[in-house]
Amino acid sequence: MSQFIDRHLGPNTPEREEMLARVGYPSLDALIDAALPPSLKDGALPQLPAPLTETEAQNRLRSLAEKNTVLKAFYGQGYSSTITPPVIRRGVVEDAGWYTAYTPYQPEISQGRLEALLNFQTMVQELTGLPISNASLLDEASAVAEAVGLMSRTVKKGRRVILDQRLHPQVIAVAAERARAIDLEVEVTALDSPLVGEDLVGVVIAYPGTEGDIVTPEPIIQAIHDRGGLATVTADPLALMLLKSPGEMGADIVVGNTQRFGVPLFYGGPHAAYMAVTDKIKRQMPGRLVGVSKDLEGTPAYRLALQTREQHIRRERATSNICTAQALLAVTASFYAVYHGPEGLKQIALKVREYAGAFASSISNAGLQVRHKDFFDTVAVEVPGRAQGIVDTLADSGYLVRAIDADTVGVSFGEDTTDEDLTVLLSGFGITEVTKVTEGTEGTYPLPADLVREDAPLTHEVFNTYHSETQLMRYIRMLGDKDLALDRTMIPLGSCTMKLNPTAGMEAITWPGFANVHPFTPDAYTEGWRELIGEVETWLEEVTGYAKVSVQPNAGSQGELAGLLAIRRFHVANGDNDRDICLIPASAHGTNAASATLANLRVVVVMTADDGSIDIDDLDAKLEEHGQHVAAIMITYPSTHGVFEDTVTTVADKVHAVGGQVYIDGANMNALTAIARPGDFGGDVSHLNLHKTFTIPHGGGGPGVGPIGVAEHLIPFLPSDPNMSNPAAEAEVGTGVPVAATKYGSAGVLPISWSYIAMTGYEGLKQATQHAILAANYVAQELKDDFPTLYTGENNLVGHECILDLRELTDKSGVTAADVCKRLMDFGFHAPTLAFPVAGTLMVEPTESEDLAELDRFVEAMKTIRAEIQEIIDGLVDYENSVIRFAPYTALSVARNDWEYEFDREKAAYPVAGLRRGKYFPPVRRIDEAFGDRNLACACPPPSAFDIS
Question: What is the C-alpha to C-alpha distance for residues 175 and 610, in angstroms, rounded to an integer?
C-alpha cells in the first residue's frame, strides 16, 4: 500500500537519482551530511507515531470529530452561527485555485483574489461609514489591539487608553495586555460618566456590547475628540445593516469580525477581522490595503497599495508586525455579501433581530427580567442564582448559551435559528408560552429610533448582480481563472514554502464535527478537538526539541510576538527589568524587527558577513556594548540567505553568556524538520509557520498559524487563555499573556497539519526535508552559469532555497529582477521572492513537492529569459524595445491588429514550445505601481471603468 509521502514528494526514484547526480552526491543522506554543519547533527530524533495512509488518517479524523458534541451555538461573545452557502464552500474554501494562492505581491497574476478583497474592503467601508478599509486582520481581539496602537502612534502625547467594559472579555484581555506591553495605561470602565484627564490617546467603544445592549457611541466620541484623543468603535457588521454607521457618528476607527458572514465557527478561527479608518490616518493603518491603479494599456488593475508602509519594509518603524492576514476568509465573507446582496443581508439581520425580539418578549411575558431593552441579536436574561443550571439544562438539550455571570444568561441568535430552536431555548427557562415571530415587526423591543440606519449600504453593482447560484458560481470561476496559484504551477517563493497542501487534511476542516463548534464550548463537549490539538502540540514538541508548544498564535507574526513577550516577561519575573534590547541580524525578515518593537524591545542590528552569515565580530561588539540590556537575539535558521550557518551554536552560546535568550525563527523549518531541532542547538523559543512547513495553505495571504515552542523555563510564559473571568486584571508577573481571541487560535485549520504529520511520520518528514534541500541545490546547480547563487554554505551547498544574483546582469543590460518576475508570468510561473533579503536578487524555494519536469520547466524559463537578456547585452536589442521591458502580455494584447513592438507576437506569448499545450495569460499588463499610490482608490470602481475601446 502506498504511503502519503509517495504522493507528497514530487520526484520519483529515477528523478531523484538524476537530480542527485547533477548535484554530485550519491544519496540524500550524503547530501544532507555535506550541507549541515556538524553542530546540528548531535540532537535527538523526533519520536513520532508510524505514518497512516490517507484513508486511515481520514478515518481517525472522523472518529475525533465524532468525539465532539456539536451544541447549536447561541453563545455569542463575538462568534455567531451562520450558513456558508454551498456554492461558496465548494467554490472557494474547498477549491485549490483559491486556497493555494500566494499573497498578491505580483498583482498581474492576482487580479481575481484582489478583486474579491476589494469587494471586502468596499463592503466594510459602506457598512462602517468610513472611507478606507484594509483587506482583513487576524481576529477581533488583536484588531482592537492594533487600533489601540494606531491611536497611540497618532496621538503621541497621550499615555492612557480607555476600554469600554462592554467589550467582549477576550477582546479586553488581548487589547489590554498589548497596550500595557507598549507602556500604555489601561482603564477598563463603564462609559456612562464624563471622561477625565487630558493624557488620553483614545477610547474603544462596543456597539453593541457583549451582553447585546445597544448604546449610542456618539457622546463618547465627541467627548474624546474634545480631549484630543481618537475613538475606536467595535461593530458587528450584520448589525450595521440595521444600525446607524459609526462613521456617521464621528468614529475615527471601526473594527470587528466578519465571521458571521458565512464563515464557520471553526472552534475559534480562522476568521477575517476588519479595520476601517478616516482618510487622515490611512497611511498608518495596519494590514494590507488593496487599491486600484492601471496597467500599461490604461486598463484599471488592482494591486496592494502603499506597500512601503508594510512591516517587512519598515522593520522597526513598522505600524504593525502583521504579515499573514486572513485573505481566504475575507474572500469568503465578501462572496457571502455579494451572493446575498444588500436586501438579502438586511433580511438575515431582520430575521436575527425578530427571533431575539420574540425571545425577549416571551421572557418578559413570563415575568422574567430582560436586562437591556435595546439589543440586536443577544438577550441577557436575569435569573438570580440559576444561570449555570439553565446553561446545563440547555446543553443537555443540545444548545449552547452563555452564563454571563451567576445571575444572568445570554442568548445570541444567528442566521440558522428556527421556531423549534426558540421553543427549546425558552423551555430551558421553564417557559412554554412562545411569542410568535412576526416577519417585519420587532414586537415590544424595537431598535432605538435614533440609531436606525437610514442610508442603504452596498450599492455597488457587484453586490446587486450575482444572486443566483449560477451567477455566483460563474463569478467565482471568472475571478479564479484570472489568478496563478499552486493548482496551475510551481510557486518558487523563497522563505514561503509553497508546497502541496494535502487534500486529505483539507477536506476535514469543513466537516460539521470540527467546523460547527463554538470556541467557548465547555471542555466536556470538545474531547475530539482537544485530543487533536494535544497531538499536534506533542508532535511539534518532538520535531522542535522544545518542552512545550502553544498553538494560540494565529499567524507567524503573532508567534514572533508571543515568543518575545514570553522572553520579556521571563526577564521581568527574574528582576531583569532593564533587559530591553533585541539583537536582530541585518538579513532577518522584517517581521522580526516589527515584532520586537511591539514587544517594547529596542532593536539593535547585527551586521552580516560577506558569506551571508552573522558577523561574529560585530556580534561580540554589540554584546560588549549592550550585554546587560540584551533580552534576546532573533535568528532565522537556516538563514534568510538560504544557508546553514556553521556558527549558530556559537552565537547562541555568546548570547546566553550575557544572560540573553535565543529566539530561532522557524520560517525556514522546511529545511530542518526531522533532521535537526532548534531546541537542541541553542534555541530557547521558536515560532513555526504551519502555513509553510506543515502544509496549511496560504489562501492568498492567510490563514496562517504560528505556534511557539519554548524551553522548560519559559513554559509559564506561554500565551494564556483570553476568555478569563476577569479580563481587565493585569497579568501577574511570572505568567503569560494572550495574543489571540481564543485559547487555541485558528484551531479550524489544525486538522491539516495533524494530517500531514500523521501521514508522514518521522521518516516521511525527513524525506520531505531532504527533497526540499535537493530541489534547491538542483536549481542552483542548473542555473549557476546563468544566474549565480549569491550565498552558499558548507561544501558550496544551499539549504532549502537559493538566492539568484542578477545585479551584474542589471548593470550590463538594464534588466532588473522585477523585469524577470514580470517576464516569468508569460511562461506561466509565479515569480520567486523579489529583492529580499538582498536588493537586485531573486530567492527561489522549489520545495519537495515539485517533480523533475516542473523544476526543468522553471530552469528552461529562466534560461530563456537569460538569453533574452544576452540579446540586450550584445547590442542586438535595446532594453527599451525588448520583450522583457513590456512583459507580461495579455491574450488581447497579442491578438490585437495594432501590434506595435519590434519583436514578434510568438516571442512575447509563446517563448518556449511547451506553452502551446496550455497557456496561462495574465488578465492585465504590467501595472503602474506609482500611479496607484499617487491616486489612492481603495473601493470598487464603477463598471464603466473597464470599458475597452
Answer: 42
